[in-house]
Each structure stands twice: as structure tokens, then as C-alpha cells.
Amino acid sequence: MALPADKQRKAWLDAEVGTLRKSWQNRVRVALVYPNHYGVGMASLGFQTVYRLLNDLEHVVCERAFLPEPGSDATSVVSLESGRPLAMFDCVAFSISFENDYTHVLTLLHQAGLPLPAAQRGASLPLVVAGGVSCFLNPEPIAPFIDCFLIGEAEALVAPFFSRFEPGRERNEFLLQAAREIPGVYVPAFYEDRYHEDGTLAAITPTRPVPERVRRVHMADIRSVATHSTVITEQTSFADAHLIEVSRGCPHGCRFCAAGYVYRPPRYRPVEALMASMRHGAGRTAKIGLMGAAVSDLPDLTMLCDWGARNDLQLAFSSLRADALDDTLVAALQSGRLKTATIAPEAGSERLRQVINKGLDETTILRAAEKLVAGGIPNLKLYFMVGLPTETEADVADLVALVKRIKQQFLTSSRALGRMGTITVSLNCFVPKPFTPFQWVAMQGVRELKGRIKTIKAGLKNVANVRVNADVPRWAYIQALLARGDRRVSRLLCQTMKNGDNWPQTFKTAAVNPAFYVERVRQQNELLPWEVLDNGLDKDFLWREYQRALNAKSTPDCPADPQHCRLCGVCEGGGARMAGAV
Question: Whose CA is closest to 81, among 119, 140, 24, 127?
């Protein structure tokens, strides 16, 4: 007789952790914490990679911990592998992918019985460390709660840091040595913020002999490092899939996309290494997910698809560029049994796509839809953004019109096959992100964003086989607050945790005005909170890109030529010259 669902899950997890449990004897004990639920955390390839990297170190034992599931009566946080409380570990390491999980960091620290302010945690308590892409965009809103951040890519950070970490050593002594000697280590307690009377940041000043700005650590060559699933789990949105990172970064320079800038220059893994990862995954599952910001730019992608088809694998892709979908690639996708293809026009009008530097015209988008359906891929998912800089009501109307034209092209191609799939439109609210050309812009208010979404839903309501899913503007607004905030935002996080994650209640009584961070245009020379970090990007380059955006001028792709290119500053160490550096 089959077990009930909850007992099935427990039995499955027991089997999982049984194969991964590692002895604690004479090892540094690290709790790797994802500040969300198990299913979300285990869908993160970055989280899984850090888990593997830590356990690959002979002197380290790493166990996982997650936010308790909704409805759980758990009053404390324990590790998955051994069920030990977080306070028993030598180090609690957070892997943070999304700003909206910052509140969960505080919840987890509180449930673990650890004081929230890092300054109040004594030597007997675990060292609290954080990393992940959110941290090397802007860690400042959670800076008071973290002993140190690891800024950059885990493959280049984990071993150097944990080879020097000594449990029991005087904390400030270790942190000072780490901040001075280990690239990418940022200790917030060693820096002090000062503000102008108008509330803008005046200076970020080191209070100890540490670097003025912390340079993110970057893997110049990812070809020899495999990044793929450590654990295949049925409990995530990628159920039973083996995920493989095929590339890092993106050459196209979409001006809203932080990944396209902080991961510069784009890097690709060779097809031989990717096939080895696919063979490894094929021994455990028939589902392979190819992940990356620019999967369709991967050289020899068709070769991977053909190999997958010959080995009866079902392939899935994070997204595909419409201008990369030629007949050969579409045929390869179809042979890999792809049922839904995802493309991202992002905006409805040609003018707005020029503003964001998307580099796609309508003809290319329509042709992509036609090729996908004709190639036997029945379903299409379209990503759009609302609230983009310079967006007008006419641009919103153009979005509706473009979806209808895609549907018409979709219908024409589907009739020839005698079947009709589904178009899913995903509407996401634009959030200005650090280290992008749009880091200076104001975000649209919640009311305006709701109005845009309502207009689009009404325009597509009666279009058959088209579904519309929309972001929640209120959560996007909070994301913008956390993405652009300084250390004063930490007060809002504390108050929100006390209010049971009730942000509206927090905003009603807060001394800190969220609109100051979300709805205010920054000035060119304003010192930005995240400039305590150096991602290698020349601030003047980002400003020029912002001005080109306002004039709807496109910029060519990143040439990914570290030997000769001097455009953005990354490949010449230009971040050290960033305008506005303290």
C-alpha cells in the first residue's frame, strides 16, 4: 500500500540525507542555509554547488537547513542531515539568491536562537557568513546581521575562506585577517556610513586597515569546473531534473539585467565538459535542464541537443533568444522532446526594446514563434516587463498588440499541424538593480504597475489559448527597497519580522521612508550604497549606457575579449577607477 504524501516525502528525504551524511569528528561544522523552503532552495543550482564545494573539503562537514515549511509547528531550525540546531555549528552560511529572502534571514537567525545584530554574538556562537548573487549586488540592508560576506563566485571563494577559518579563534582577529588577506571578504563592521542632511550617502569609510572597496572574486575560466546538480529531488519545481550550468553571464547587455553586468565577461563551458555532465545526470534521471543567462548563445548547442535525443533524454532550457532560433536549433530542440519554449521579448514596442537594449525586432519575434510551432514545440512562454524606464501607455498597448500578432502567427502554424498549444504571458514588474545602467532610475509606484497589468489582462482576456500570469507589484516594490537600500533599511527588516512579515504595517509606522529608496531618481555623482563593492564596472560606462537608453540607442554585444576590450572596465580592472569611489 502506498504511503501518504507526507510520509512518502519523509521516507524520500531520509534516504537522501542518509547517503549524504558526513562524520562530525575533527571537522569544521558548517550549516549551509537557504532562506526559503526546501523546494525553493534545492532548485537553486548555486546552493547545490556550494553544498558540494564545502563537502569536497576534507576538513569540513556541511549540512543543509531551510526555512520551515508553511504550516509547520517547528519552533527552531535544525539541519536536514543530522537534525542538529544551527547554534551547534561552527559557521552558519547563508546562500542568498533573492532580495525578498532578506526577511527570512532574520527569521532563521531568530528561530536559531542567535542574536540578530552581529555585534551581539559572542565567540561561543557560530560565525554568520553570507554569499550569493544578492550579496554581491547590494548586501547593505542585511549588513548589521552578518559577520562577513563572501563577494563573488563560490568556486573561487569557498576553499580559500574555509582553509583559514578556525573555530574558536578570536572572532575579530580572524575577520580582520580574512578581510585583509582573502579576496572577496567583506566585513561590514569594519566600515562606517555617513549621510548628508538630505539623507543621501556621504561616505563609506573603513574603520580598520582593510580595503576601501571589496573587489568581487571572479572565475576567469569556468571550463574546468563543472556546475551541476548535487542532489536530484522530486520536491522542487525542477522535479527529478539534473540541472547543468552551460554558461555564466550574457553578451547582450540588456540594461535592466544585473547578471549581464556583474558576471562579465560571458563565459561558456566546452561541449565535451557539458556532455560529461549530461552523462553523469543521465545515470540518475532522463530529465536534463540546461541553465544559463544565454543558453542559446552556447557554441555547439545543437550538438548537445542531438546527443540528448540519441540518448533518449528530455531537455529543458531556462530561456532562448528569439534571434538564435534557426531551423537546425529548432529541430534539435524538438528531438529533445521539448514541449514548451521560452522567449523574452521583454517589451511590446520596438522603441522600448531599443531603450533596454534587447536587440530584437518584431519580425524576429514572430518568426521565432512560427519556427517553434512548425518544429513541433506546441507551447510558448513569453516574458515581458511592465514599468520599464520611459514606458508609456502606448508601449503597453503595443505589448497587447504584439501578443495578439504572436498568437495569430502561432495559430497559422498550428493549423498546419492540426493542433493548438498554449501561449503563457508572464508579466514581471521592472525593478532597478545595482551595477546596471538603470541603477539611477526611479521605480514606478504600485498603483501605476497595477494599472499596467490590469490593462494588459483586459486586452488579452478574450484571446483564446492565451494565459496571463502577473507579478505582484507590492512584492516588486519591496524587492526594489531591499535591492537599493542602505544600512538604515535594516531597521525596516527588524520591524517587519516583529510584525510577522507584515510590510504594510511596517510602512505605516516606519521612521525610514521606503519611497526614498524606491521612487527617487539618483543623481549621476551620488554615492550609492553598493559602491563599497567593486564588480569591475566603470561607473562612467554605466552612466553612458543610461543616457543611450534615454535616447533609445542600442549598444553592440559584449565582445568577451579580455585581452583587448576596454569598454566597460571589467577586463582591464577598471572597477578600481570607478567614478564616485570612496
Answer: 24
